[in-house]
Structures are given as structure tokens and as C-alpha cells.
Backbone:
């Protein structure tokens, strides 16, 4: 398990242990010839690996943190008090089932409505990222030392790199004109996709990430990592929440300019 240079809290240590458990289940199923794939009522895919990871992590949380609540993509939500673990067992299931390594387990702890711990474990990439409020954001590649993450210093849209996730998301949300306006205003646009866009932002390699049709379990683990790396994380209108169905993450310098550009294109 990667170790943070300063002493991690008990909650972060537990989250990293959960990530180890998740990796031990998901990675052997990646590119497995007998992977089982089902379609959920919302027409998204779920694999046996998604279910197995969430079941194992939920059982561990219930055994070791019985007073904490839980919200997972596959098994739903159970609130208990002011603390809640929010999990996406495999973020990027479509990538996972096609054999594309851009997928990860997302683990967050939310306390009194604030995401205080976030872990993103991407064993297909051999990478893990983590953060807790006040402790900085960190990343580690397998076999290498951990390193602290910092967002970029880009302050002008014309020099910014944008990851917009997918054209379909923006079109269905009624924001296609805003996407085109951002594309024209920025230096470079790509759709790196899923959690990876946000980790590239935290590493200072991308400057803006935005998407729609996202759930709290898609975003909660990303928030502490982006913000502890020096970035800003809101919904597309600038509200500081992971619960409104959209996201906008930037290096902070560009945030207001992106919100202005998005809003102006919808008038």
C-alpha cells in the first residue's frame, strides 16, 4: 500500500486498505475471458467485478466502521449519522469490459456533507492517487516513490488544456454550444474520460475538466484530490457540490472564466 510522507489519518489508512482489497479483486478480472456482463435498468453496463468489489468493500466497512453510512453505485445508500463512505467499485466499466486500462475504484469519506478523504486506485495503469483535507494530494506509480500533486499555473483560457469527457454528455444536457465555445476559447481539447481527466488535472497536465450526467459516487473521491492539489471543484454553475449532476474542475485560476464562457454561450 502506498504511504503518504506525513502520517495519514486512520480514515485515510482505512481507505487505502479498501483500495488494496478492491485491486486484489478487480485486476484479476480485467481482460478475463469469462467476465460476466449485464445491462442495468438505466442501460449502463455492470460486470461481475463491479459487484464483487462493492460487496467486499461494503462488508469490510460494515465490519470495521459499523457506525458509518454507505453509498455505492451497485448496492445503494444507507445513511447512519454524519459519516458516509461513497464508492464506485469500477469507474469506467465500459473501458474495463473492453480491456481499456482507464478505470479505477473510487473511495471517498464524506463527513457532515464534506468529502474529507479520496482514493482513486487504477491498477490497470499501475497508479494510485489519494488525498485528505489538510494533508495534500499524492500519487504513486507501482514501484516508485509517492509524489505530491499540484495543479498547473495556467491562467488564460487561450493557453488551457480542456478535457470535456464526451460530446454526447454536453449535447443531452443542452450545453453543446457551451462546449463549442470552450473549445474555441482554449488551446487544446481532448476527452480523456472518467477519473483520469481529473487526475491529470491534479497532476498539472490538464487545466479544465467538465462533464454532465454524473452521480456522487463518480465525483466524491475526486474532490479532495483536486482541491488538495490546489484546484477548485464545483458543478457547472459554480456551486460547491458533488450532488448536482454536473462537474467543473479546474486549476482554480480558470474557474470563473469557464463558468462565464459556459453561461454566455447558452443565452
Residues:
Amino acid at each position: 500500500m502506498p504511504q503518504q510522507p506525513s502520517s495519514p489519518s486512520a480514515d485515510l489508512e482505512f481507505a487505502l486498505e479498501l483500495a488494496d482489497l478492491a485491486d486484489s479483486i478487480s485486476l484479476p478480472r480485467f481482460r478475463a475471458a469469462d467476465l460476466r456482463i449485464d445491462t442495468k435498468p438505466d442501460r449502463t453496463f455492470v460486470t461481475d467485478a463491479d459487484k464483487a468489489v462493492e460487496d467486499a468493500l461494503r462488508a469490510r466497512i460494515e465490519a470495521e466502521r459499523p457506525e458509518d453510512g454507505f453509498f455505492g453505485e451497485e448496492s445503494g445508500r444507507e445513511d447512519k449519522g454524519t459519516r458516509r463512505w461513497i464508492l464506485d467499485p469500477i469507474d469506467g466499466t465500459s473501458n474495463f469490459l473492453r480491456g481499456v486500462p482507464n478505470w479505477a475504484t473510487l473511495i471517498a469519506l464524506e463527513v457532515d456533507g464534506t468529502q474529507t478523504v479520496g482514493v482513486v486506485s487504477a491498477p490497470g495503469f499501475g497508479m494510485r492517487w489519494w488525498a485528505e483535507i489538510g494533508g495534500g494530494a499524492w500519487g504513486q506509480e507501482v514501484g516508485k516513490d509517492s509524489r505530491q500533486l499540484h495543479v498547473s499555473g495556467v491562467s488564460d483560457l487561450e493557453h488551457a488544456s480542456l478535457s470535456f469527457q464526451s460530446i454526447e454528455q454536453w449535447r443531452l444536457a443542452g450545453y453543446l454550444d457551451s462546449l463549442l465555445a470552450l473549445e474555441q476559447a482554449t488551446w487544446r481539447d481532448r476527452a480523456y474520460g472518467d477519473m483520469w481527466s481529473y487526475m491529470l488535472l491534479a497532476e498539472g497536465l490538464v487545466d479544465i475538466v467538465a462533464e454532465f450526467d454524473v452521480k456522487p459516487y463518480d465525483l466524491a473521491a475526486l474532490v479532495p484530490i483536486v482541491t488538495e492539489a490546489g484546484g477548485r471543484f464545483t458543478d457547472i454553475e459554480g456551486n460547491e457540490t458533488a450532488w448536482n449532476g454536473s462537474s467543473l474542475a479546474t486549476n482554480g485560476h480558470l474557474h470563473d472564466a469557464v463558468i462565464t464562457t459556459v453561461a454566455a454561450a447558452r443565452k
Q: What stands out?
A: The longest strand covers residues 83-91.
